[in-house]
Specification:
The protein is mainly alpha-helical. The chain has helices spanning 30-43, 47-63, 74-115, 140-164; strands at residues 3-5, 11-13, 125-128, 134-137. Strands 1-2 form a two-stranded antiparallel sheet. A hairpin with a 5-residue loop joins strand 1 and strand 2 (11-13). The model is unreliable at 54-66 (pLDDT under 50).
């Protein structure tokens, strides 16, 4: 292939056909005709398919209100209120227990700093049943572990109870 320089400084390749910049009529282009045929086929769906599609859409619209919870009648509403009250009372008791335990530990820590002892050193753990049987220990390690265990159990139960407290209006 040989290249020749044109007068305006652009290279001209010999043997290359020059581009024809004139507009041509492309309405009879086979690709356009094929696309037009496909569009017509898609727009002329069978009548049964169109009806089924409409029925499906109407079912979707009808199904949406069923997702809402049904309105409670008076008996169900009162039952729900009693249940929420029970959970609320249980929640308050758990919060009271957690607060008492934390206050007790803070008091013991304050006293232990003054005497340079373990913060449960002067404590006694006593468990008594209905028959009068008593378990007593003064071991500070056991008392510390029991205190931590009670606190974690109360916190777990508190989150469980709070998860049950909700109101749907």
């Amino acid at each position: 292939m040989e290249t020749k320089v044109n007068e305006n400084g652009q290279a001209k390749v010999a043997g290359v056909v020059a581009a024809d910049n004139t507009q041509k009529n492309v309405s009879k282009n086979p690709v356009r005709e094929l696309k037009k045929d496909m569009d017509e086929k898609q727009n002329t769906k069978p009548q049964a398919f169109q009806e089924a599609n409409l029925e499906c859409k109407s079912l979707e619209i009808k199904a949406a209100p069923d997702l809402q919870l049904p309105a409670l009648n008076l008996v169900q509403t009162l039952k729900k209120i009693k249940e929420l009250n029970r959970f609320s009372i249980q929640r308050e008791k758990l919060i009271g227990t957690i607060d008492k335990l934390e206050d007790f530990e803070i008091l013991q820590l304050d006293q232990a700093e003054e005497t340079n002892l373990n913060h449960f050193q002067r404590c006694e753990l006593r468990i008594t049943d209905d028959n009068g049987n008593v378990f007593t220990t003064k071991n500070p390690f056991i008392i510390d572990q029991v205190s931590k265990n009670i606190n974690s159990l109360c916190l777990e139960k508190l989150t469980e109870v709070e998860a049950h407290i909700f109101l749907n209006l």
